[in-house]
Amino acid sequence: MPMDTLPERLQEWPPILNDGRYLCHPQHLSLGRLEQSEAVLVLLAERLTKTALNASLAVLAGQDIEVELVGIKRVAERELVSLRLSHWHPELKFQLEAVASDWDLACLPSLPDSRQPGLVLMDMDSTAIQIECIDEIAKLAGVGEQVSAITRAAMEGALPFSESLRRRVKALAGADAAIIEQVIGRMPLMPGLTTLVTGLQDMGWKVAIASGGFTAFACHLQQQLGLDAVFANTLEVRDGKLTGEVLGAIVDADAKANILVDLAHEYGLPMSQTVAIGDGANDLAMLGHAGLGVALHAKPLVREKAPVCLNHLSLEGVLCLLQADSSPK
User: Terminal CA-to-CA distance of the chain, rounded, Å?
Assistant: First the structure.
């Protein structure tokens, strides 16, 4: 079936294809199926067209990878197509991303099964919320430029996270602790956060935060969204002032990865049923341990190393990936 006979928008294809099994080739479909596959490819966007599919198929055809169309769906007001691949290698991620002009993708040996219990663990600052809380506190304390420069260095991997956090918190010494409540009062959620959390809860999944930020903000989100658990750092307050110290062990990259493993064990879940979401260098260990690691609007270093990157969609894209139908019909 020539693709030029099909509508430009993929969402209009299912009634025409009539639930048939199709192998996908550049510019055309043929009836058939893969007997075995090594990976799943999901393309997703606000509006998904033949352009995305054809560009991806051209990359795969150049490597003699056979492709089967599994499903076309609409999830969380976003559109996606699921494909099975006869072969897979890690470099496919970069090759497919190179042609992805306005769509996101995941190309992996497998995805977690939304029909089974699972866990999503996400970073907080610049992931669950749109701000870096310590930067906002610092602005109100009059040391904004000093602190934000250290934050950037840490998120880009140029400075060890624990060292950067202690240096930033030290700069806050003497600030009025009431600043924290001011920041909480105007803390903007990341687009798609409520959609993702509600969707996960409807699926019976656990949702938690592991943050290098602070407990006051994480606990506020837990109450607001009904999260199962939160882990973050505690700012020391004495006589209504920030002392410039952090209480207890710092939640750094290794701690986040350990929290993911510990929660999976606590909830009786295999690691294949875990998802981690983050944007900074201190999230990479967590992303690497998860069954699905997703970098959200991330820094270049993180985009390079993360298994999956959402560069166009926001957190609702994670729900799309989990609800993509990647199993054989």
Answer: 20
b/e 196-232 (16+ beta carbons within 10 angstroms → b): bbebbeebebbbbbbbbbbbbbbebbbeebebbbbbb
List, for residues 162-209, the tens digit of each pLDDT value.
999 999 999 999 999 999 999 999 999 999 999 999 999 999 999 999
Tell me how far apart the alpha carbons of residues 316 and 294 are, in angstroms, rounded to a whole number: 12
Q: Which H or E element spans position 52?
A: helix 50-61
**DSSP string over 204-263:** T-EEEEEEEEEHHHHHHHHHHHT-SEEEEEEEEEETTEEEEEEESS---HHHHHHHHHHH
Among 4, 113, 123, 202, which one carries the catalytic annotation? 123
Name the active-site residue from 125, 135, 228, 283.
Answer: 125
The answer to whether 286 and 257 have CB atoms below 8 angstroms apart is yes
Is residue 234 within 8 Å of 248, Cβ to Cβ?
yes
Return d(Cα 170, Cα 148) in angstroms, integer.
13
3-class state of residue 267 by DSSP = coil
- Can you tell me whether residue 101 is helix, strand or coil? coil
Is 123 one of the catalytic residues? Answer: yes
- Antiparallel, parallel or unpaired: β 78-85 and 206-214: unpaired
For residue 125, indicate whether it is catalytic.
yes
> pTM above the 0.70 mark?
yes
